[in-house]
Every structure is written in structure tokens, then in C-alpha cells.
Write a structure and sequence with these properties.
This protein is of the alpha/beta class and 317 residues long. The chain folds into two domains: 3-226 and 306-316, Spore Coat Polysaccharide Biosynthesis Protein SpsA, Chain A; 229-298. It has helices at 16-29, 47-57, 72-82, 102-111, 128-145, 161-164, 173-184, 208-227, 231-258, 269-300, and strands at residues 3-9, 34-40, 61-66, 87-90, 116-120, 157-160, 189-193, 306-310. Helix 1 (16-29) runs parallel beside helix 2 (47-57), helix 5 runs parallel beside helix 8 (208-227) and helix 7 (173-184) packs parallel to helix 8 (208-227). The radius of gyration is 24 Å and the shape is elongated. The two termini are 15 Å apart. The model has no long low-confidence stretch (mean pLDDT 82).
Amino acid sequence: MKFSVVIPAYNEEENIPRLAERVAAVLNRLTREWELIFIDDGSRDRTYEAMSASRARDHRIKLIRFRRNFGQSAGWQAGFDHARGDIVIGMDADLQNDPEDIPAMVAKLENEGYDVVSGWRAERKGSVVLAVLSKIGNWLRRRMTGEKIHDHGCSLKVYRRTCLDGIELYSDLHRRYITALLSWKGYRVGEMKVRHHPRTFGATKYSIRKKWKGLLDLLVVKFWIQYSTRPIHLFGTIGVVLAAAGFLLGGTLTVLWVLRMISLQDRTSPLLAVLFIIIGLQFVMTGILADVVAKNYYATKKAYTIDRAEGFDQTSA
């Protein structure tokens, strides 16, 4: 198997037939063996029926249906787990990614020695507010991760199979930061400008709320890239700084009290300030550690349960 195209979908019944037809037409031109894996992420409409109709026309189309909505990350993970291709292509189901960009991205991957080629929606269509927030978010990500990719949020990506071994996807890290994590692992990541079309059918699944979640995820990725193998460098530094500040403040107050320059009676504001700082840091560190624990959990357990799968043999699961 040369190519595996992985497409998670949630409530995209109108887009699925058109998408399947267009992806198949592009892959047929590449004249190499391929498979198209649709993942129905617990849709409430007739998305799975549309997928089944497409499979009836072409059995190279394979289907996975979740028992409930687990999120797009779980969809990617299930698709990657079942993909048999040497090259794995991920894209959205809303027809805003253009399948016609796939051949050029594959050529760039194969000819220029990249392990991953990520799409760059230089002329993004859709909500102006979301587009602006995406530009701000991408700038922050480049600053914090050191990666040069312009558009971390573009789902259209082409991977060598080896890149995806050992990648565990959860939360929304799949689409925002997978290239940053792969770069950290030593893989060569490139990008290519791709077309982006306005959504014709259905409603967008991305919102300002998800942008905010992406900012919080960025803190976790920054921690994971920089401190996952040596967390004492981060937590130790914070501890030393806080301890030094505490000794300095306590020593200063003690000296001033001994010299009878101040009275420590009824002085609650310094204590409150210290308590607020410590409690705030405890929350941040607890959140980071909890996310690391979740990552380890999902490294050994699947983040999804499958209701039905069609087109796979026993060894592909």
C-alpha cells in the first residue's frame, strides 16, 4: 500500500460524497495503490450512510464509526492506527482543503527529503475573526516552539509512515502542534502553500472557544518540548526563586522589625501576596503534570471505541 488518506468527519453528510469522489480521482492519477479511510466521529446526521454509499462504489474506501463523539484527535488516531500506506495523508472533511494539492505535496515530500509536509493556507477563507486569531496563535506558536511553520492549524498534511509510529494524539494537539512535536523528535518538517475554499455545506466545528483551548495547549507543548526529559530544570528553578524570594522578604521584615522600623502586627498583605503566588503556581504545575499523566495514559490506552469497521482485515487494526 502506497497511500492512505485519513479523514475524520462529524456531521458532514453533504460533503462526504463529493469529497470521496474528488479524493479518489486525484489518487487514481497517482497510479499507485491507495486507500481512503473515513472515520465517523459519532455523527448525529447521515454521515455514516453517506460513507457507506461511497464505499459501495469503491471498496478502496474504508470506514470506521465511533460509538460516540470522541473528538477529531481520536479520529486521527484511529485512522493512523488502521492506515497501511507508506505515505499517510490527513485532511478535513469539509471540502475546504483541496485534494488537488495532494500530488504536489507528495512530490515535495519525496523529492526534497522531508518527513512531513504541512499545508499553509496563505489565503484562508471563512470568518475574519477566526482568521485573525489564527494568525496571532501561529505567531505565538512560532515564538514559543521555535518552529517555522506558518499555519499549524491546517489539517492537510502528508506524512511518511515512520513519523506516526509512537505519536499519541489526544485533546486538540493533533492539528495544532503535531508538526512541532515531530520536529522535536528530529523529523524534517516542510510546508507548502495550499488552496483553501469557503465551506459550502454544514457548519464549522472551530470556534473562539477552541482557539482559547489551543493557547492553553501551547503551554503544555512548550513544557513537553523543553522540559519533558528534565522537569527539575523548570520546577527546580521556580522553587529556588520562590524560596529565595521568601527568605529575602522574611529577612527584610525581620531586620526592619529588630530595628523597630515596622510592626509586623496586623500585616496580612505580604502573607496574602505570597499565598496567591504559591496557589497560582500550584495550579499551573498541577495542570501541566496532569496533562503529562494524561499523555502517558493515552500512550497505553486507546482514546476511542469503535462501533463498526468495514474494509479492514484482522492485522490492520
